[in-house]
Amino acid sequence: MIQVNEAARSLLPGASSGDRLHDVVPAWLSDAHRHIAHGLRSTSAGPLAGVIDERVFEAHPSPSTGGDVVWWLVDDTDRRLAEKALHSAQERSNVLAEVSSRLLSTLNVPRCTEVAASMAAEHLADTAVLVAPPHGRRYPLTYARRGMPVTQVTRAIDPGGVPGLAEALQGLPPVPARWINPDDLPDWLLPEASAGPVGSVIVAPLPGHGVPAGALVLLRSSTERSFSEGEEVFARLFAARAGSALSAARLYTEQAAITTTLMRELLPPVLRGVHGVEYAAGYRPALDHERIGGDFYDLHPGADPAQETFVVLGDVAGKGLDAAVLTGKIRNTLHALLPLAADHQRILELLNGALLSSHHTRFATLVLASVRRRAGRVHLRLTGAGHLPPLIVRRSGDIETVPVQGTLVGALPAVPARTVETTLAPGETCLLYTDGITEARGGPLGDEFFGEARLGRVLAECVGMPAEAVVERVQMLAAQWLGPGCHDDMAALAIGAPKAGRLSIVDGHVRHAQSRRRR
User: Fold this and answer.
1) 107 near 115, Cβ under 8 Å?
2) Model-level pTM?
3) What does each C-alpha distance from 30 to 50, 162, 500 come to in angstroms?
4) Among the four residues 129, 211, 216, 457, which has the most C-beta atoms within 10 Å?
5) Alpha helices, H only, 133-228
6) 279-312 exposure pattern, b = at least 16 Cβ within 10 A, e = fewer
7) Alpha-carbon distance 242 to 240, whole Å?
8) What is the DSSP-derived secondary structure letter of residue 358?
9) Which residues contact 182 (CB under 8 A, 6 or more apart)?
10) pLDDT per residue as tens digits for the range 356-384
């Protein structure tokens, strides 16, 4: 060593001119100098790096006169620490982005729980246990070990046995990891085939939308390093995203269950033969992704074959959920008015009053039908309230329009209506339908209505068909005419008089022997 300046002397205390280089500098620096001196390395080959007194230095060799080498040492510790911190932050940011993406890709609660636990085990710990809010005294538990399948069980546990878990399940701030003694953990928290004794633990709450979504317990074995403060903070960020996703999934599940329950009451019923009369109906909402709309039908069987069966088909102004809600109200009102089913006019007056007194501003058109089979013929009493007149398919092939007349309900103080009585001979059918069928716009140019005349021609081809076949054919041809174009709600209901044959009663319902053989 020829010369040492003041800065080098502060870095290498005791170094002075004339000392042997390998006695005062680290081996990486003395070896590098020897390589340059022996021509094994050029001074222009770039800087070297090594540690001196726990700090990282870059060593830049520079040739001097007489073959000497001047070494410039630059402290690179802070830059490297900054780069390491930045790289760690980028990795965690990527992990959080992946967590959000995968968790928000599903609204299924068990699947969301499984993903949260498995990703926690993959990125944060050896083992992750997700504790969901309890059902009674039992807690849904999801165990995930790195590289192992996820298991989900429901057990009766005591969350108070894990420091901070009871508080986390209540949404309280987390307990620092250093306060938790791994030796105090209960056996239920440790999954089967555990990797060994637990060395460190993190208990993080899963915050939800106003209600805690559970808690996440992270376990790291004693052979691994303990959780650092930075990892503890990162675990809370992870838990915040997992909690939001789980809370959203649970909220969606609850709302979907409520919607399903309510929609079940709004869906049109499935019709079948009642007291020796065939009934069939079909419904297509205006929006194919919805199951309900503004058209509706309902059937209320008589107490016995001697009593009339009450049938209604209607159309509420508008479409979609708002219209469907009003159809539910009309159906419930008509159900309550069944004791007055013998008087269609009275039913329409009471229904009209109920609609006028409600907050709805919509109106509806209806066709009421009272049906009874007697002496092999089906007797009908039909009343219209602003609706399209029913069509009857006679055995002769004639299509007869039932001249019902009336005013729509829910718009005017009075609802005058005319009731028409008629009969169906065996093999004849009466069709009730909504304007969604006749006003289906389509055809070769896409701008022509399906129309009543075309509907009549279709029905003329249905002579002798059972009611179910008539409805299917009308719906099929209307759909073909419509094509991919937009349309209104479409509903059709057929009342058919079975062809003559032996009758039998099965499960309280009269069945026609010929129809049964056909099946």
Assistant:
1) no
2) 0.64
3) 11, 55, 114
4) 216
5) 165-169
6) bbbbbbbbeeeeebbbbbbbbbbbeebeebbbbb
7) 6
8) S
9) 197, 198, 199, 200, 201, 219, 222
10) 988 777 789 999 999 999 988 999 999 99
